[in-house]
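User: I'm new to structure prediction. If I give you an amino acid sequence, what do you actually give back? Let's try with this one:
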Amino acid sequence: MTEIILICVIMLTAIVIGEMLFEWSSDEYFIVFRVKEMLFSSPLSELMSIAIGIGIGTMAVHLGKLWKPSLVFSTSALWALAICLFISIFLKSRLSIEPTLIDLYNNKIMVSILVGVFFTGKNYRR
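Assistant: Good question. You get back a string of structure tokens that encode the predicted 3D arrangement of the chain. For your 126 residues, that looks like this:
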């Protein structure tokens, strides 16, 4: 269980640093701003929120397998990982950082995190 909590802390740190770098680069470089504007425009914003959630769930499972190969991802461990990711996103929303990519109140991100965790975790279940 402590491994799962550590994975979520690492994921929370990666999410916060990634969002800060994304915001800084979009302020600093015009091309990144244009790409951000294009990706998060009306028709693509829904698809991007789903892709971000699936990416977070997938990255958490792969991080667990890379960091601790002996870690067994049972169904209960995958649920614990998903709940821990939800808690870490909740804690991130309590920080004074503006939510740019991940918003706590976006249900599509929450569901797609579950899809990412369980779709990737099915390969590792024993």
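You can read the tokens as a compact description of the fold. Here is one thing that stands out. The radius of gyration is 15 Å.
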